[in-house]
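Figure caption, in words: inputs first, then the predicted bound structure.
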Amino acid sequence: MRTPLIFAISIVFLLPACAGKPRSPATVPDGPPPTAGPTSTQPPPVPALSGPFQLPALPYAFSALEPHIDARTMQIHYEKHHAGYAKNLNDAVVGGPLAGMAIEDLMREVSRHPAVIRNHGGGYYNHNLFWKNLTPDGRGHPCGKLEITAALDAAFGSFEKFREAFSAAAAGRFGSGWAWLILGADGKLAITTTPNQDNPLMDVAETRGVPLLALDVWEHAYYLHYQNRRADYVAAFFRIIDWEEVDRRYQAAKKAL
Ligand code: MN
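Bound structure (manganese (II) ion present):
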């Protein structure tokens, strides 16, 4: 009599992990603008900034990434840390020759600019990418026919080996910094880390390339919920990566080689 139950349970476990709810793009609801705050279920309003560099709208609510990243951390990270980097970057460039430059171009020749561009321009660029790398609909690994899946297999042996290597790199970055998956000028994928708000676009970076995936390992990114447990935060990050976005960036970077 237990056979049908065992059969049913087996079917559940045999279903591919990708066959979950379909991804749906974030939509802006009708009605009054969403209220700010960690308990809102709507994407938060974009902080107003004066200057050429504006924050991107978050495509999800502060609470949407729970339990992996808590709403309070998201709110402080976006409204205080990211907005702070953007404000300081704007204050540094307004009225000067750098005001019309794209952030990517500022990064590529950052050694020619004042330190504020490296620190706060880096913080602005890195967080823009970080938010886009995250999704409430993460599956834990790439799904469907994404080019990045085969590319990760070819470069690292398997997705699991990539995950282990990236997690080790993120754990091993001493102090504040970032872990990255990049496409190098040689057309190869690589894992690298940077200190502070540096990134692999910068001409001061040890290993340069086009960032495809970014992980913030500053304590402000995880300390409220994870305290000193950076490894747990990194494991949680892998539950909410938007691999379709990483794949889009991979294809664009390949074309631009
Ligand atoms: Mn941060």
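The longest helix spans residues 71-93.
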